[in-house]
UniProtKB/TrEMBL annotation:
This is Proline--tRNA ligase. The keyword Lipid metabolism does not apply. It is found in: Cytoplasm. Its main location: cytoplasm. The lineage of its organism: Bacteria, Bacillati, Bacillota, Bacillota incertae sedis, Caldicellulosiruptorales. It comes from Caldicellulosiruptor kronotskyensis (strain DSM 18902 / VKM B-2412 / 2002). PANTHER family: MITOCHONDRIAL RIBOSOME PROTEIN L39/PROLYL-TRNA LIGASE FAMILY MEMBER, PROLINE--TRNA LIGASE.
Amino acid sequence: MKVSELFMPTLKETPSDAEIESHKLMLRSGFMRQLSSGIYVYLPLGYRVLRKIENIVREEMDKSGAQEVHMSALMPKELWEESGRWAVFGPEMFRVKDRNEREYCLGPTHEEAFTYIVRNEISSYRDLPKILYQIQTKFRDERRPRFGVMRCREFTMKDAYSFDVDEKGLDISYKKMYDAYVRIFKRCGLDVKIVEADTGAMGGASSHEFMVPSSVGEAEIAYCKACGYAANLEKAECLDEPIENNEELKEKQEVYTPNVRTIEELVSFLGIDSTRFVKTMIYKADNKFVAVLVRGDREVNETKLKNLLKATDLELASAEDVEKITGAKVGFAGPIGLSINVYADNEVKYLKNFVVGANKTDYHIKNVNLSDFKVTKFADLRNITQDDLCPKCCSQKVTIERGIEVGHIFKLGTKYTQAFNCVYTDEKGEKKLMIMGCYGIGINRTAAAIIEQMHDEDGIIWPITVAPYEVIIVPVNVKDENQNRIAFEIYENLQRNGVEVLIDDRDERAGVKFKDADLIGIPFRVTVGKKISEGKLEIRNRRTKESFEVEIEKAIEVVI
Ligand code: ATP
Ligand code: MG
Ligand code: MG
Ligand code: MG
């Protein structure tokens, strides 16, 4: 591409409304323009970067076995009523009416559409598992669109959805997506921190976010340099100081003396949604298995477990015991903290002799009663601060820093398949709910995050994998016939060799062209100047700022 013909409206001045570097640089380099608050259009260079990122995402998704489809952005209200989200999504959802007053939304996400299609088209275990994805425009009426394409109201997301026959299948699909994300962000040249985005009430972390550490990130991450623990600060919790055997404790014991017959009573007894005392949660699948998670502690470590056994007449439960009593495989509903698993058909049959444990084999004990917890675990769960020890290894204080959420993967379970009655028939002819996962990457936000991580005072430093062009050739003086001829020869040669190359054939001062080349961040600059009389030209690396001279004939080889 000739720069003289390129639509690249660069700006000399920094736009006053842009607060962060990526926003400023994307405007200054003529990559994009704002049309309205949180709404942007992409010009040729910017659009090439987005397409490069999309292609990396597409290649890695395809490699993982996911299949690309394309849903509509416009979706009928009825679809969203089926999941109940029409009512709960709130003002972030753009809603529109057609000429007949029928209501629609502009998709902020696509769980409904995917579940609907899979429900209609897949009915047998033989057709599972499936991972489907799309690269699609999303609309969210963000309360505070800001920072350019970092948080906008119309953006491109790669969103994938997995459908499996069981939890084990979901684990496999989830791992595939996790690994694909690691490869994607690596290829984009990004340094990402993978954090738990959910404290794992349903058995280990059921959600991870891919965060680019950056002071302009809107999320906060807590992590431990010693053991690698990392979590979104919104979700990271630790135990408050345990309350010793005092009056307050006694009071609480009384309050928590169980006298419960039904699940409803149990829910109210445990104080679901209460952050006081212990956090609790109920999980229900197939209307059969109910796990009540009393998260009194983060993890049952061996010493704590032994002490608990010594202090009581509790027994260690084998994996088979757990399965027999709870109907759940170890690892299925095991939370990070202690859990009480109650097996019931809509009614709590056994309010004593629970199995409790962590999400690990050999870390369960049986014949536990609610009262056992009261004497051993009494502490509030609260959000972590920088003064807290790592909740996992306790060996040092957590570090807190800001990050940009570029990707998010999530084990959904049966949340949507239940709402849509998305079932399959298993080998025995029984109908079962499919188990889902969902996986998103913000394409535009990823581009902005790359700039945040890689820029200097002169402009953007694109990694070659996502750069709009790989090489820019700058004839210093286009009026010099020799310089021009050699520059174009190299240009055409590189093009023939599949290199994405720009030639700055504008009749401008060399300094202007160098500045622009640096601003738009092309990884290699080939300068064709006076040195051609000695048969030489200069190649400069944008990132290291190193330049070296090469023989004209060798220029192509070196660049390739
Ligand atoms: P955030 O916490 O920043 O609001 P989110 O958790 O709402 O993001 P998800 O629903 O998890 O976002 O969507 C998946 C991905 O889509 C995010 O990880 C992010 O990369 C991208 N994304 C979400 N909202 C926006 C937005 N308003 N503008 C640009 N990209 C976005
Ligand atoms: Mg959001
Ligand atoms: Mg988020
Ligand atoms: Mg998210």
